[in-house]
Design a protein that fits this description.
The structure holds two protein chains of two kinds.
Chain A lengths: L2 E4 L13 E4 L4 H11 L4 H4 L10 E5 L2 E2 L15 E6 L1 E3 L19 H6 L1 H4 L5 H10 L1 E5 L5 H11 L3 E5 L24 H12 L4 E5 L8 H6 L3 E4 L4 H14 L3 E7 L2 E7 L7 H4 L12 H4 L4 H19 L8 E6 L4 E6 L21 H4 L12 E2 L1 H10 L4 E4 L3 H6 L6 E2 L18 E4 L5 H11 L5 E4 L2 H8 L8
Parallel strand pairs in A: 1-5, 7-8, 7-10, 8-9, 10-11, 15-19, 16-17, 16-18, 18-19
Antiparallel strand pairs in A: 1-2, 3-4, 3-5, 11-12, 12-13, 13-14
Helix pairs in contact in A: 6-7, 6-12
Chain B lengths: L1 E4 L1 H14 L5 E9 L2 E10 L11 E3 L1 H13 L3 E10 L7 H5 L6 E8 L2 E10 L6 E4 L1 E3 L8
Parallel strand pairs in B: 1-3, 1-9, 5-6
Antiparallel strand pairs in B: 2-3, 2-5, 6-7, 7-8
The chains are: A alpha/beta, B alpha/beta.
Amino acid sequence: MAVTVLIPTPLRPYVGGRDAVQVEAKSVAELLDRLSGEHTGLRKHLFADDGRLRSFVNVYVNDRDIRQLSAQETPVRSGDTVSIIPSIAGGTAVQVGAQQPVASLPKLSHEEILRYSRHLILPDVGVEGQRKLKAARVLLVGAGGLGSPAALYLAAAGVGTLGMVDFDVVDKTNLQRQIIHGTSTVGKAKLESATERIRDLNPNVRVEGFETRLTAENALDIIRDFDIVADGTDNFPTRYLVNDACVLLGKPNVYGSIFRFEGQASVFYAKEGPCYRCLYAEPPPPGLVPSCAEGGVLGVLPGIIGSIQAMETIKLIVGAGEPLIGRLLLFDALKLQFRELKLAKDPDCPVCGARPSVTELIDYEAFCGIGAEPSYDGAEITAAELKAEWERNPELLVIDVREAHEYEIAHIDGAVLIPLGELPDRLGELDGHREVVTHCHHGARSLKALEILKAAGFSKVRSLRGGIDGWAVNVDPSLPRY
Amino acid sequence: MTLVFEPRHVNAIRQHGEADYPAEACGLIGGAVEDGRKVAVLLVPLVNQRTDAARNRYLIDPESFRRAQEKLDRDGLEVIGVYHSHPDHPAAPSAFDREHAWPWLSYVIVGVARGRAADMKSWTLSDDRAAFDEESITLEEHKAVWQ
């Protein structure tokens, strides 16, 4: 006696219209192999091109799913009944940009066919997907840590037009992570540096540069002409600005952010799922989340997150796979762990909810609490002034409020190290009658220290403008800058 | 092969698509092959199991398929097709639909634009799995009464 295989209706035409066939076999794998050997039309419906059982083909042995048994190694015996049960899946592709009929997509040159051959042989991309990439217009906000790998991979992948918004100049401290720039372009505009590199990588890509800060005044006009925005900004006002502009214009926003050893990525596309404000309705208080310059970042991290942004952008363009819409990917580099949170659309979201209160771009600096800082007139001292005063008055107390590991990189001789976080608890160590100058790396933390000291009753406190960096430039060039 | 619907089937699929909007609605079509035509007899509306991405994906798991098939079997019917809605998209199969499609079955898609059912079309997978071919939907009132 053999094993009875029950055939579902869609497959019956391939077994002569029968609803059951008999097969001799010892395991499910052997059974499926024999079955599709005898009825050759079955094979392509049961197995994918790589030889694996298709995901929507389910096999049951005597009413039990083989996934709960030993999968395809599950043994079968004479008299067993094996059922092939369909699961049925489908749905629409997430579509972005103006959907062009295939015929009107730009054609590929012979050079492009050769260049993209590894894409063309992927069934999910193919010639049609590559032509979609060529037709696509992607805007990168920021040509820094995240923008560098994103721009390189998108250019290499053959995205036809890359827009880039950046007004910064390449600095040596950028090179540790901003791999689109190089030692030879230090001092040049980032846009110019990135354009040179992209031109070398793939001359087919058109770069449209916007050498400006993205603002509420220009954002809609700049973003309007692109299909997808990849947000590589490092500050909250711009992040909310990019989000709101994308929601108002109906564009997907491929988001990434990094901090020290951790990163996040998602695709915010209000037509299909939540937006950034559904996740973070309000920005954190200013100063709570340090920038890369203040908090540091491991250089590889933006490489990973920026590459994920490039991958998601390409998937959206070619319509492949499952986009990161409605999901927040969290990456922890130290544990080397990816986690995923489901994100729901907030029905009361102020910008993408049912009754939005934000219907045009707002003042994002004010929204993020920036610009309302107290004035520090007279509370700051320059490096040159400090040097002169210190020479006249050796009693002057200079407090370094940076972290110990920063102190190790470089420090001002004679300064006392009290990290900002420890300062409130260590006020007792200080003589309230002495004149005090606080300093940090660039002059931001030392202003916070100044406020703490003033609140504690210290009357003669000033902060070193430009921090130890200003000192290294103007007073002591023997100090390394970082 | 032509797919034969009664008007009530068409109405029921449209209503299901509207009721579940903006999620995708899905269900199975039970019927029989008569004179070389697939004749629909009853619909088995199912719950879309893709709660994570119900807006643009649907899934009928094997257990649901099996239960529906057993139910139809008792009535002497078989699964002749699947219906699903495309919220805010036309009634044309996506590449995802094609990659996951079974041969022979009719794939009926109803486009639902802003909550209102729009066009409805039926498709079958080509034998080489490379394309979906549109098949005609014929509307007929059945005289025979199925028990």
